[in-house]
Specification:
By secondary structure, the chain is mainly α. The chain has one domain (about 5-435). Helices cover about 85% and strands about 0% of the residues. The protein is built from 16 helices and no strands. The chain has helices at about 5-25, 25-40, 40-75, 80-110, 110-115, 125-135, 140-155, 155-180, 185-210, 225-255, 260-300, 300-335, 345-355, 360-375, 380-405, 415-435.
């Protein structure tokens, strides 16, 4: 499974996860198309409030999937199947507990949560309606990503891809069913998004229930130190994945503060859909490579890890350049599918996309580096880069650039943050080499 040239391994692991995760982004994007065409601008702004919530759920699932994946791949690389199965069972129980807590407490404090996420009085009821469905079925969203990650580490990257693709296509059909013939409004869009992961879980479960690989359910005694290690190793993935939600939250607040109003929020929603697709390409490839980097770490092959990383940097750079070229020539056509009658909204979003996406070549490099360091258990470096591109630089840039450049400077915030993070990551690599660290950098 891990034999072959770099491009063969890349195609075997990175591409299926990239395709699956790209289809999975359709969950949110298709909602936007239907909401924009059927319900209009205010409903789109209400859905925008829920984007950070969805991203938080995905980010939590990635904590569990990546943290357990690093441990499982390392154990399997050492031929320790019993140890790998123990981690599998621990993370399954941990996910159940987290999912139930989110569903219970999220619904109990849903109005306060909506306000925190940027809801305004005019759209509050619609935002709460959307969020209620997402919160209630949140355990399935956690498990859909977690089980997909576990399947990849169990040598089944294609199964993980199929589960995500089928779940996404089901969401397309359910969006139409709930919103058009059944007239369920924004609640129908939310329900379709929430049901998609249920279908993915149904596809993935038989692999583990029927013991088709090294990972399956068995009796075990829970040791909290394993839960802690999973969370520690997976935390950089949480930050990396939650970056999308974090940046959305920061921009929503900045857009309101800058006086752009509903048109600004609605425009950033559709810009966010395009951002989601581009970052999903990078996240999918990076997550797909995690089992590879972790396996080579477990088998003590640092040279193969470095070679695979160097090859991947080139691929990510090529994909980044191609994506920005497509933004320049096709963003207006993409935005038109959400609300073709709202020419003001389309023009506003297309104009701001040019500065917003100009630095995304650095985003690909940053995401790959985070995943590489995490998979090779350089957690401190991985976490540092994750925090720089999410919690530290974006809020700073969104606050600072409008002061220096006027209100329009806000649209450069994301790209400038990614560029500065890349400089920071390169500096960490140089520092590691200077110190002569024995671990691979």
């Amino acid at each position: 499974m891990f034999h072959g040239k770099n491009h063969e391994i890349f195609a075997r692991f990175a591409l299926p996860q990239m395709i699956g995760l790209l289809f999975n982004s359709v969950y949110i994007i298709v909602d936007g198309v239907f909401i924009g065409n059927v319900l209009g601008r205010d409903a789109m702004a209400a859905a925008a409030v829920s984007v950070p919530l969805v991203e938080m759920l995905i980010a939590l699932s990635m904590v569990l999937a990546s943290g357990s994946g690093v441990m499982i791949a390392g154990a399997l690389g050492r031929d320790d199947r019993k140890g790998a199965r123990y981690v599998f069972n621990v993370v399954i129980v941990t996910a159940a507990g987290i999912g139930l807590l989110i569903a219970l407490f999220g619904n109990a404090f849903i109005h306060q949560l909506a306000v925190v996420l940027g809801s305004m009085e005019a759209i509050h009821d619609q935002a709460v309606t959307y969020m209620r469905y997402i919160l209630t079925l949140s355990p399935f969203m956690l498990y859909s990503f977690l089980l997909g990650g576990l399947a990849r580490n169990d040598g089944q990257p294609r199964l993980a891809m199929v589960a995500m693709v089928v779940g996404s296509l089901s969401n397309v059909f359910l969006d139409w069913l709930f919103m058009v013939p059944l007239h369920m409004g924004i609640g129908g869009a939310a329900l379709a998004t929430a049901v998609g992961p249920v279908i993915s879980v149904i596809i993935l479960l038989p692999h583990f229930l029927k013991k088709r690989g090294a990972l399956y359910f068995e009796k075990f005694r829970l040791k909290m130190r394993f839960v802690g290690r999973i969370l520690m190793l997976g935390f950089p993935s949480f930050v990396m994945e939650f970056t999308i939600g974090m940046i959305t939250f920061v921009y929503n607040a900045g857009i309101v503060r800058s006086g752009y109003g509903e048109v600004g929020l609605a425009a950033y929603l559709i810009i966010g859909y395009l951002m989601l697709m581009i970052l999903t390409l990078f996240l999918g490839m990076a997550e797909g490579l995690q089992p590879v980097f972790s396996h080579f770490t477990g088998t003590n092959e640092p040279q193969r890890n470095r070679s695979m990383y160097a090859f991947s940097v080139k691929v990510f750079a090529a994909v980044s350049i191609a994506c920005y070229a497509l933004v320049l020539v096709g963003s207006r056509a993409f935005y038109t599918i959400f609300n073709p009658e709202d020419l003001e909204l389309i023009e506003f979003a297309a104009t701001r996309s040019v500065p917003y996406f100009c630095g995304f070549v650095f985003a690909g490099y940053n995401i790959l580096t985070i995943s590489y360091w995490q998979a090779t258990q350089r957690t401190a470096g991985s976490l540092a880069v994750s925090l720089m591109r999410s919690a530290i630089l974006p809020p700073l840039m969104v606050a600072l650039l409008p002061v220096l450049m006027g209100a329009e400077g806000i649209w450069l915030g994301h790209s400038v943050s990614e560029a500065l993070t890349a400089v920071f990551a390169v500096g960490l690599f140089a520092l590691a080499r200077k110190r002569g660290a024995k671990k691979e950098s």
